């Protein structure tokens, strides 16, 4: 078996043609999307047909929203271990969407416009396999009590270059 790695740079896409990509590259392991200036939303059909995707990188885009059902009922819930959505326009943690990704170990949301990270973003055992969480270069101002305490596997947390003004209670795992 030979897995594939696909990179799209500055392609004028306003939605992902995942089913077409999946047909052309049935053993796609890594998908890199760089500079997709028309992509603003990931919808519920964004990853249909990608059955072996282990790594997804979306960077330098205008992506501002990830629908709650984006990763629901897709094969990648059992295969995606690495996710980077960096230097884009996200203003909040896409925790409801990410909660479906039970194999996810590495997340980078560096360089977005995320203002709040709340304890509910990681509650209920969502993202319990996360080992690396990178939230650098956002606009986070407050860390709530117990924000990261449910991330039992967390080994590395990056929060540098934010606007943190207040840390409430004990936001970190002990």
Report what the structure shows.
The chain has two helices and twelve strands, in the order βαβββββαββββββ. It has a seven-stranded parallel sheet with strand order 1-2-4-6-7-9-11, with no helix packed on it. It is mainly β and 174 residues long. It has helices spanning 18-24, 95-98; strands at residues 4-9, 28-34, 41-42, 55-59, 65-66, 82-86, 106-108, 116-117, 132-134, 142-143, 156-158, 166-167. The chain is globular and about 50 Å long. The mean pLDDT is 89. The protein starts with a strand and ends in a 7-residue tail after the last strand.
Question: Could you give a short description of this structure?
Answer:
The protein has helices at 18-24, 95-98, and strands at 4-9, 28-34, 41-42, 55-59, 65-66, 82-86, 106-108, 116-117, 132-134, 142-143, 156-158, 166-167.
Which structural class do the helices and strands define?
A: mainly beta
- Compute the average pLDDT: 89
Number of β-strand runs: 12
User: Which strands sit side by side, in order, in the main sheet?
Assistant: 1-2-4-6-7-9-11
């Amino acid at each position: 078996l030979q897995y594939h790695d696909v990179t799209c740079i500055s392609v004028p896409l306003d939605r992902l043609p995942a089913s077409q990509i999946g047909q052309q590259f049935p053993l796609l392991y890594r998908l890199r999307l760089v500079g997709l200036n028309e992509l603003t939303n990931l919808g519920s059909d964004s990853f249909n047909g990608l059955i072996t995707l282990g790594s997804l990188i979306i960077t330098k885009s205008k992506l501002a929203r990830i629908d709650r059902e984006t990763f629901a009922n897709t094969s990648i819930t059992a295969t995606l271990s690495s996710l980077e959505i960096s230097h884009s326009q996200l203003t909040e943690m896409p925790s409801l969407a990410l909660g479906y990704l039970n194999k996810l170990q590495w997340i980078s949301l560096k360089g977005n416009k995320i203002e709040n990270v709340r304890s509910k973003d990681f509650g209920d055992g969502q993202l319990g396999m996360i080992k690396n969480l990178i939230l650098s270069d956002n606009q986070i101002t407050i860390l709530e009590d117990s924000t990261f305490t449910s991330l039992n596997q967390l080994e590395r947390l990056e929060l540098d270059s934010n606007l943190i003004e207040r840390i409430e209670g004990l936001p970190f795992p002990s």
